[in-house]
Amino acid sequence: MTSRWTRFWKVAAGVVILLLVVTALGLSQTLEVFFRLAFGWIRFLGDARPRVRIDAGKTSLVIALLGAFVVGAHFVLTRLYRARQSAIAGDSPPSPPGDRDGWRWKWTGVITALLVLGYLAGVTIAGFSHHVAWEFRERNAHPRRQLWALHQATEKHKDKLGLLPSGATATPVGRLLHGWQTQLLPYFDRQALYKKINLQLPWNDPSNREPFSLEVAEFGGNGAAYGSRAHEGYAPTAYAANSRLLSGTKVVQPTDIVDGTSNTILAGEIVGQLPAWGRPNNSRDPAAGLGGGPDQFGSPWDGGVYLLYADGGMHYLSHDTDPYVLRALATPAGQELYP
Fold first, then answer.
1. Triad 89, 93, 94: Cα angle to 5°
2. What is the pTM of this model?
3. From CA 307, how far away is CA 267, in angstroms rounded?
4. Is residue 207 a contact partner of residue 243, using CB atoms and an 8 Å limit?
5. At residue 297, what are phi and psi to the nearest 5 degrees?
6. CB 298 within 8 A of CB 185
């Protein structure tokens, strides 16, 4: 018993050390993928269970077909087994139907169960392979995932400081330094990149060129679909904040969103000449429209734009959304009435 517990504690210590090493090397995202693959199905079952509806008719049909398959398989296998036994025994008569040496129902049941398990295993492997490919190749490719990452980072910022990130930081004399996306870097597990930035100097100071030339997957803009790269070689972003919420150096508290977080846009997609993610006041007014112009939100998708609301909700709004609705969603405390 003592040796067994010794082995257990050795394994536990090894796991803890491995987790610490992975975290120290900045591989926390890889660790997150592992846990999502290993335990994500638990949350999926919890989310999916309320939506599961059993169709009595289809269930009965499946049971009937499976029963017919078992009976038919048993009949065929019994004849094959008897023929095989007869060939082995030579002139000996075949086993009668009730003979204990004949083909048994439990054998048919075992074969049927193996076939069903093989089918389910194939479906599972196909789904697992697809999920792994999505995790490692496309995890940060879709705007919904990137906007969700922005929401999570904003929530962590709010939980720690009690405030939303400001549209820009500035010196006491009003010289702009850094933007809202730079303020979120530590909450994306991008501490190493954040530490390279001299926050006392403007984002486009020569000493800050290296960190701001690095692409950040959560900020998008690393594909040709959204538009051209930012000016002067800085890494671009495919998202901008709502200028009526995050603009300038004003401090925004959660209580300032009087209209409700579910009725206020936080950020959204942009296209065209993409700005650098480090640029201060990277924001646009949703009320200007969703046409993808230089001062508008927009997307490379046909029909609409993905917008992130302050409560974390993501909505795909049409390019033709009523300007009044957009203005109502843009203001945090306008208390507009929806038509």
1. 85
2. 0.59
3. 6
4. no
5. -80, 155
6. no
Do residues 264 and 274 lie in contact, with contact meaning Cβ atoms separated by under 8 Å?
A: no
Please say whether the beta carbons of 188 and 257 come within 8 A: no
Distance of CA 246 to the CA centre of its chain: 25
Pairwise CA distance, residues 177 & 28, whole Å? 29
Query: Is residue 225 within 8 Å of residue 300, measured between CB atoms?
Result: yes
Residues composing the chain: 339
169: how many CB neighbours lie within 10 A of its CB?
A: 19
Q: What confidence tens digit (pLDDT) does each residue in 115-164 have? A: 999 988 888 887 766 655 555 544 445 788 899 999 999 999 999 999 99
Q: Which residues contact 152 (CB under 8 A, 6 or more apart)?
A: 187, 312
Query: By C-alpha distance, which of 69, 162, 160 is closest to 116?
Result: 69
Query: Look-up: residue for tokens 């579910």?
Result: 262
